[in-house]
From TrEMBL:
Belongs to the TRAP transporter small permease family. Part of the tripartite ATP-independent periplasmic (TRAP) transport system. Keywords: Cell inner membrane, Cell membrane, Membrane, Plasmid, Transmembrane, Transmembrane helix, Transport. It is a multi-pass membrane protein. The chain crosses the membrane at residues 12-33, 39-60, 90-110, 146-164. It is found in: Cell inner membrane. The complex comprises the extracytoplasmic solute receptor protein and the two transmembrane proteins. Residues 24-169 form the Tripartite ATP-independent periplasmic transporters DctQ component domain. This is TRAP transporter small permease protein.
Length: 177
């Protein structure tokens, strides 16, 4: 069941990443067009950067599911098959630990309990914690950056899900049984 959910989540991540890649292309073309006619839209640059960040994190999480990330395999290629499997499991465990740390950092950064204790009042929260995550605006879009940074929660969830799925499934480094 965990592997099925991981596979479906990775499929959704890749679909979103592909849509974001198309959006980035459209935004860059829009930027080129508007600049060439002398009517630059400065918010387009910022939106393209944020879309690229989201795309990268979604694709990176899906790569963990597929065990398709860039890797240096000189050590595992030289090892006997059993030792290579052990090393692959060790890598899966390190990725799982990194995923848990990412979620912990998100918890420390967003401080959701303290925000709830402040009654979801941004000014009360800021006064109590000196954390301005919920009010800091983007440079040109005028959105609160918390919406941009929320991808970190999605990334942490996907990373935990995929690395836990990898740990509980007997696979080699290419993701085959």
């Amino acid at each position: 069941m965990l592997q099925t959910f991981s596979r479906r989540w990775a499929r959704a991540e890749l679909a979103c990443a592909a849509a974001l890649a198309a959006a980035i292309t459209a935004l860059i073309l829009l930027n080129v067009l508007t600049r060439s006619v002398g009517f630059a839209l400065y918010w387009v640059d910022e939106l393209a950067v944020y879309a690229m960040i989201w795309m990268t994190l979604l694709a990176a999480s899906a790569a963990v599911h597929h065990k398709d990330a860039v890797a240096v395999t000189i050590a595992t290629d030289a090892l006997p098959q059993d030792a290579a499997r052990v090393l692959s499991r060790l890598v899966d465990a390190v990725i799982f630990a990194l995923a848990l740390l990412t979620a912990w950092f998100c918890w420390r950064w967003f401080l959701p309990l303290e925000f709830a204790r402040a009654g979801f009042d941004v000014e009360t929260f800021q006064g109590a914690t000196f954390n301005f995550i919920y009010s800091e605006p983007t440079n040109t879009l005028g959105l609160r950056k918390v919406w941009v940074w929320s991808i970190m929660w999605v990334f942490a969830f996907g990373l935990i899900l995929h690395s836990l799925s990898n740990l509980t499934t007997a696979t080699d480094r290419k993701g085959t049984s």
